[in-house]
Amino acid sequence: MIVAILCYAALCALSPVGACRKCHGFGFKVSQNRRGRIVRGRNCRRCRGYGQRVRAGRRIYNVATRLHREGNR
What we know:
Residues 1-19 form the signal peptide. The chain is of the alpha+beta class. The chain contains 2 helices and 4 strands, in the order αββββα.
């Protein structure tokens, strides 16, 4: 269990963003038109078209450092 937490912490430190789970990193919805061709859809609402999301561990780290920084001013 502790090894898994340390590995996730290392992952969050090395790669703080991951691919969006809704659009799979494209940043938009992929759909087909009536002829069957793949066309670009609207921007993804979850990642706002960036295709990336901040990992949960990195978000917790950012909140903790912000609280520490604001508390020590």
